[in-house]
Specification:
With 209 residues, the chain is of the alpha+beta class. It has helices spanning 2-39, 171-175, 177-180; strands at residues 69-72, 77-78, 88-95, 106-114, 119-121, 135-136, 142-149, 156-165, 186-188. The strands form two sheets. Strands 1, 4, 6, 8 and 9 form a five-stranded antiparallel β-sheet that branches. Strands 2-3-7-5 form a four-stranded antiparallel β-sheet, with no helix packed on it.
């Protein structure tokens, strides 16, 4: 009887010890799992990162208070070429709308002859400076360009394309400049073709004896 009680007590002690060991192992595993989970937690993304720059061409710049540029297809110029009708002519382009020069300067971008093959262009001629890159202002209202007839027989027109840079604070008055400009055209005349005279050749028969 005493032996049975002793055996039963020993078995109970073994079960208690085993249960305690399992509990410690479970807690330890649980702690390891928690640590691993913490280690793999993703860090939050940094805030305030710069955004990607947009691709593609920039939008055309328009006139604004910082001084935008406006293109004028035909500046208000006029004139009659010196030696009109000759092979070599000198065109003096004079500004016709003085009121537009009160607050703005106009720079020549291109001198155009239409049709293109009728006359070739040169540089300065006469007393006025060359029109290429010339700036019309209140104190400079004329420029010159030499032209040479190409003998095509076609008369032509000369126009000047320009650009105005709006002054700061003049945005309202500058934007409507294209509608206020009266396009100017200068006529170019080809030289007259020399008249062709036909001479009749008389054949004289020589009498034979």
């Amino acid at each position: 009887m005493n032996l049975f009680r002793t055996t039963l007590a020993a078995a109970a002690a073994v079960l208690v010890f085993a249960a305690a060991g399992c509990s410690d192992s479970t807690d330890s595993g649980s702690g390891s799992g928690s640590g691993a989970q913490d280690a793999t937690t993703e860090a939050p993304l940094p805030t305030g990162a710069p955004s990607a720059e947009p691709s593609g061409p920039e939008s055309p710049r328009t006139a604004d208070d910082t001084g935008g540029a406006i293109t004028i297809p035909q500046l208000p110029v006029g004139g009659v070429p010196d030696n009109s009708g000759a092979e070599d002519q000198c065109v003096t382009a004079s500004w016709l709308q003085a009121d537009l020069l009160a607050d703005n300067d106009f720079t020549v971008v291109k001198v155009e002859v239409d049709p293109p093959g009728a006359f070739s262009q040169g540089g300065q001629c006469g007393e006025s400076p060359a029109c290429a890159s010339f700036t019309f202002s209140s104190g400079a209202r004329a420029c010159s360009v030499a032209v040479t007839a190409r003998g095509t027989g076609d008369d032509a027109t000369l126009t000047i394309k320009g650009q105005v840079v709006c002054a700061a604070g003049k945005d309202a008055s500058c934007r409507d400049l294209p509608t206020r400009v009266s396009p100017g055209v200068i006529g170019l005349t080809q030289p007259e073709s020399p008249s062709t005279e036909t001479t009749a050749t008389e054949t004289t028969a020589t009498p034979t004896g």
